[in-house]
Design a protein that fits this description.
The protein is of the alpha/beta class. Helix content is 25%, strand content 15%. It is built from 4 helices and 5 strands; from the N terminus they run αββαβαβαβ. The chain has a 5-stranded mixed sheet. The chain is elongated and about 50 Å long. The N and C termini lie far apart (37 Å).
Length: 133
């Protein structure tokens, strides 16, 4: 939460020796889904054709990870995955579920956490939220 109320809540959380960030990602961490291979480490992105938002920031970030980012508007993500213009995409879990992007995967790949505070890339398990195909 922003503003005075958010500051008050964060201060109360800090008293419990926990850290609450001033700003958060509204939908949580962004996840990568893949139709071709598991993405477990940053090295797995080398040459990976991934849909990213139309933004120089996202494009440059994935290029720096040696991926092959494609800037595609969100309204075209499902068809880009379906027609294999890209091998995968990245979005928060809530968006992946709502847009049913998991339907476009050929293989049973569960999302991989794109970034964590520890710098690791653990494979996530989300139960029935992402049914196996």
């Amino acid at each position: 939460m922003d503003g005075d109320l958010g500051a008050h809540v964060r201060a109360a959380i800090a008293k419990a020796n926990l850290v609450a960030f001033d700003k958060i990602w509204d939908n949580g961490f962004r996840q990568i889904t893949s139709s071709s291979k598991p993405i477990v480490t940053p090295a797995d992105l080398k040459g990976f054709k991934i849909r990213v938002p139309v933004s120089p920031l996202w494009t440059s970030m994935f290029k720096s990870l040696e991926a092959s980012p494609a800037s595609i508007n969100f309204s075209e993500v499902y068809s880009a995955l379906q027609t294999k213009i890209v091998e995968g995409q990245e979005n928060p879990l809530a968006i992946i579920q709502t847009a049913k992007l998991y339907e476009c995967r050929n293989t049973a790949r569960r999302p991989t956490i794109c970034g964590t505070d520890s710098g690791s890339w653990p494979t996530a398990s989300y139960g029935s939220a992402f049914p196996r195909t």
